[in-house]
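Please predict the structure of the following assembly.
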Amino acid sequence: MPAEGLLAASWLLIALPLAGAAVLLLGGRRTDRWGHLLGTATVVAAFVLAVACTVQLAGLDERAADVELFTFIATGELDVTAGLLYDPLSAVFVLLITGVGSLIHVYSIGYMAHDPARRRFFAYLNLFVAAMLLLVLGNSFVALYVGWEGVGLASYLLIAFWYTRPAAATAAKKAFIMNRVGDVGLALAIFVMFAQLGTTSYAGVFGSVGTLAGGTITAIGLLLLLGACGKSGQFPLQAWLPDAMEGPTPVSALIHAATMVTAGVYLIARSAPIYDLTPTARAVVLAVGALTLLIGAIAGCAYDDIKKVLAYSTVSQIGYMFLAVGLGPAGYVAGLAHLLAHGFFKAGLFLGAGSVMHAMDDQVDMRRFGALWKKLPITFATFGLGYLALIGFPFLSGYFTKDAIIEVALDRDDVWGWVLGGVMVLGAGLTAFYMTRLMLMTFFGRARWDEGVHPHESPSIMTAPMIVLAFGSVFAGALLVSVLPLSGWLEPVFGEPEEAAHVVAPALVGLVVTLVALAGAALAWLFVGRREVPVTAPVRVSPVTRAARHALYADAVNESLFMRPGQWLTRALVWVDNRGVDGAVNGLAAGLGGSSSRLGRVQTGFVRTYALGMLGGVVVVAGALLAVTAG
Amino acid sequence: MIEAPDLSWAALAPMLVVFGAACVGVLVEAFAPRESRHPVQVGLALVGTVGGLVATLLIAGEPDEVTAVGALAVDGPALFLQAMIAGFGALSVLLFAERALDPARSAFVVSAAVPAGSPRDRELTTVPRVQTEVYPLALFAIGGMMLFVSANDLLVMFVALEVLSLPLYLLSGMARRRRLLSQEAAVKYFLLGAFASAFFLYGLALVYGATGSVLLRDIREATTAGSGGVLLVLGLALLVVGLLFKASVAPFHSWTPDVYQGAPTPVTAFMAACTKVAAFGAILRLLYVAFGTAEWTWRPLVYAVAIASMVVGAVLGLTQTDLKRMLAYSSVAHAGFLLTGVIGLGADGGGSGLSATMFYLLTYGFTTLGAFAVLTLVRDGDGEASHLSQWAGLGARSPVTAAVMSLFLLALAGIPLTAGFTGKFAVFRAAIEQGAWPLVVVALLASAVAAFFYLRVIVLMYFSEPAADGPTVGVPGLPTTVVLAVTATATVALGILPGAVLDLARQAAIFVG
């Protein structure tokens, strides 16, 4: 139904941060002194508005509000109206984005205090928030795509923020290219919808998708999945996400942990009516999720860079979410609950990592940390709570949300249900292993600090958001599962939750997962906590460790499959363009009159070269046309 | 006694205004005193182009007409394209007229006949005199282009092709700085252009041989009846090659980088925007009106050259270190994207390809004009600084210039909320409707690759330390400021609210046969 009251003003949610970005970017140095405050204020204001909108939404009978903005493209049969859809699903994301976004903006005031380009940083962050809100608020796939490209651009700008580091520039490029691969999938899916259904609005597509042939629906589902994999760092496009950690840590927390990388999950959840019709595409979603979950967890065990471990953890946790939304109606709510809880604790973990780096002169190598718990008590406490939430410690956030996914998988009551459940339990063990390893290497053991490093606790403007997020890590899970159940809130989107007959009692699942996690943690203590941690990584390691250190050779695969052929193509084309045709001319001339050396000295040979190229083209064109006509 | 053909003066008014202004310009050149020539010529050129634009708008509502014994078709597409050519022509004339940027007060050489590097040439570089013959030349080219897109007869089309080409060859060789490069570009363009024209002419002869007529309408009847055979197909191939050359479609693109780089930048901007419109206008008319019912003959051909053009443009653009060359390869890639719209014409023009292609031409014209206009601002001691490395850190030195350039580059890359996105969206959709899946996949991949080199420039401008002896950013005079304002506004407006213009293109998209 059309939006009224505050909901009609929900376009302000996007406009506020966008205006902030515009002022900061166009205002130039004049805004240096107060730019960060303005940037933070716009996001906080958006959060307040989002809360008010959501409260109003909760009071509506039909919990969905359409906000028509303007007609984007309208010619004949093609009609794209730019509009927003404020419904329970988008409301959840809007709250997450503006809420966690506000906290991270506040944190950044402290974290970027000494950076000369702080204003630019806040401008890009605001730009990101605006684009991300458009992504989740748009009422059509085209609006989503516009936001999708926007967050990609902002992410690119922010990864490359410290552009003087070559690694940052390379990482930004990598992220950009791998995202483009995914974007092509999304764009194609949208074009298929246009060609087949004549619309891209959610209402229009979901209303008529059932009339399509099964193969077409599956194709749309798989193309959307490709887009989701690119943005969310899922197999086979996962390699960019860990490299993206070259960006400033608040960026890693906001974009590459809590919000943007979950856009893929949003896309699949939003497209639920499409996936409901195509078991094949849904099975592929499951496979992608399960595979990524393990890849991320295994790679996370081997890295020494604290942010990369957390990044692989993100890859792995989003794998859980993909798996959940691949499980069908019951899984959507479980996946989104995990997404929200993860948003809290992973953002908290990243901010904690940032606080540690702040204390250690931007060192990220965990082999050079150790014994920090006494020096950084607040960081240790908040980080510790995030850690417990992530490994699924009983009654913290991760415990409720992760177990819910495992239960849904087991409820399938078939062989695959057991396999997926097993994978997730194994993943939980691995998660406990690498996170415990991270905790032990960072906060416990002997101090292995570099010379001249004097760790100190971060200022309160940084610790305050960490404390708030720690509360989220502790309580979000219980809140979402039992106090304010997400399943009831999302009912208008995904339908009434079925009361599933549990195959395995939830308590038993909880017990098993907890035990496996404890085993993982114990193993970590056995391998890492008991002994002295060497300051440089040992070289002679088992093949398994080596493979994990190389993230299961994802980069090597990408290089040989995509980069090398691309390079060859470029080189070949350049060669043909510069020398190939020229060489052909010379060769031809030599063959005809043995005068290649004389021709080689003719300086203005290029026009003839071009002309020969054209002639070749003409022959091919005419030959092809004749062949077509004859055939 | 030959009867004078019946001419519809009203329908011809846009072209008559432009050609009339051009002829007056020649007289001004001959009789007006030297000091007053520049303002008079600029004014005249603006009157001609803006007058042409206004004339097209005035007769836009009138019913379609075929006039001059069937040689000219003044229909929706013709008027839409003519309006574009006149409008872009007016903007280009403004770029020609810029006097504030170059210390020598103009981008054009004082006397093109003086050998480059000779003592007389060195003397003339410091003289504050300016070249004014470029304005009538540009007007003739614009008039030729307007004739080109409404030619309903292959002979008239050929004449128009020559009328638009010859002034362009001359204009390319008139750069004030780096004269040898400019002259080399002009000679190359001329030789290859003559080569391409010969193909067109030979194709014309073959088609005449096959059908006994040069009128597009008669050719259509012949193709529909299935007569003509090999001669007709071969003729079609050669005609298309001649047009693809002008549109800088690979593999007929080889002149583009050299000429774009060597020509004076205002001329490059003019060629990139207007020549593209004219060439595609002719391609659309030829394939739609004359060969629309034989769609299956040219479809594989257009398919193949579209892919070649997109791949060549996108991939070779990656390795360019000169911005003008990079934009030239970008123009090659965009020609490929435009051809996906041509594929969208469908059997007998049943698809939405015509309106999509015209809309794309509009968005691309604005964007590319704007991008070249920004290029004229960034200069070092030796004229424009077009090497990529010289643009490093421009964002810190001149935020507004960098921001405007970024806008145009994002639009060229097809990022949403810019004109480039809506244009691409329209042509890809038209191609998909005709089932050209593989083509759109290639197009999306090519635009992904191409986006990379556009973004590289943005990154270079914002994320690199400025070079110590970097270029200066000139303060543009009124003409360039107007061009930048118009093109930037259009790029944003067509990206956010393209509805009205798309609708206009759709209404205009009916050829009169």
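Confidence is low (pLDDT under 50) at residues 580-605 of chain A. The first strand of chain A starts at residue 65 and ends at 75.
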